[in-house]
Amino acid sequence: MENLLNNSRMIGTALALAIISAAAPVGAVDAKRGPVTILTPGQLQNLNARERRFDYQQRQQFNREIDNQALRRQQPRIEVPVVKPRCPLPTSGVARAC
Length: 98
Prior knowledge:
With 98 residues, the protein is mostly helical. The protein has one domain (2-72). It is built from 2 helices and 2 strands, in the order αββα.
């Protein structure tokens, strides 16, 4: 779960950086990080699609883990008595009295 949060934060930070850098002028340089990469709208759309896909996969994996844990915690099946007929039923002919 913690890994999921860390990955989401990392992708969110990358997405925020991409959005901010798209608004920066062409020759922009960040004093701490160096040159700023400017993404085209198509690249930004691809980044968004990758993030949504990644989030979906992480949610599916989390749900599978929750389901597996629930299966492991299930109570054992209770033995229920079954009523059996006293004599077998005939497949053809006259019914017999037992």
